[in-house]
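Thread: quick sanity check before group meeting

JM: Hey all, I'm pulling together slides for Thursday and realized we never actually wrote out the predicted structure for the chain we discussed last week. Dropping the sequence here so it's in one place. If anyone has concerns about the input, flag it before I start.
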Amino acid sequence: MQFTDQNGNIIKLFEIPKKIISVVPSQTELLFDLGLNDEVIGITKFCIHPEKWFREKERIGGTKKLNIEKIKALNPDLIIANKEENIKEDIEELQKYFPVWISDIYSLDDALNMIEAIGKITDASPKAKEIINLIKQEFSRFEKSIVEQKTLKTAYFIWYNPIMAAGNNTFIHSMLELCKFDNVFKNMERYPEITEEQLKIANPELILLSSEPFPFKEKHVAYFKSICPNAIVKLVDGEMFSWYGSRLTYSANYFKQLRNEITI
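JM (edit): ok, ran it. Output follows.
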């Protein structure tokens, strides 16, 4: 069997994989929702969903610091990785020994294509199609519900000290656009560091502080308010904006609730 991943690599398998390692949290949750409990033998320390797997599955390091020797000892049939979340050198080392399927995701369509592809490679296509159809339905309803709502100038922050925002060419940016949140840093690539002066000049109407990777708390709201006193500043669930697996089945309803809470 031959498969092409989202990075253009050709993956060859002689049989349906029975020993899978996932090194990406959102894709780990997808594997669970595809019903692959017995097949998944290793996950990262950041794969917190589902909680049962987080407690019971073998952990093979973090997304940016994989334990290569432990992975080798587990001898997987398939490793599922991501271009952004994993370190290139780690993946290239693993590719010498094992089939590694790499996702590369910037949009909702990319995420749906990933779900379909992982469904095929793991022989779980029917369940993958169910998940894809549900996500499409939920996002279609959501987009119709906000047709009349105002587009808001928005800054989305992922890190503190240094302050880092989600810029263009990110999955988060595509989610913001779907929500009619006009990303004020869309002229900057990936995850730029932002100065207080740049934030003042951008003058967003809305500032969103993500729960991950930096866990923004209520105490940080006052800091951003001091820079942009006229902006609404809200803490948001980062998983809803950045997890591109089956968690997307919840994202549209979350976004709808979020939009309804914001009155400008």
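AS: nice. The chain has two domains: 2-138, 146-261. The first strand starts at residue 2 and ends at 4.
JM: adding both to the slides.
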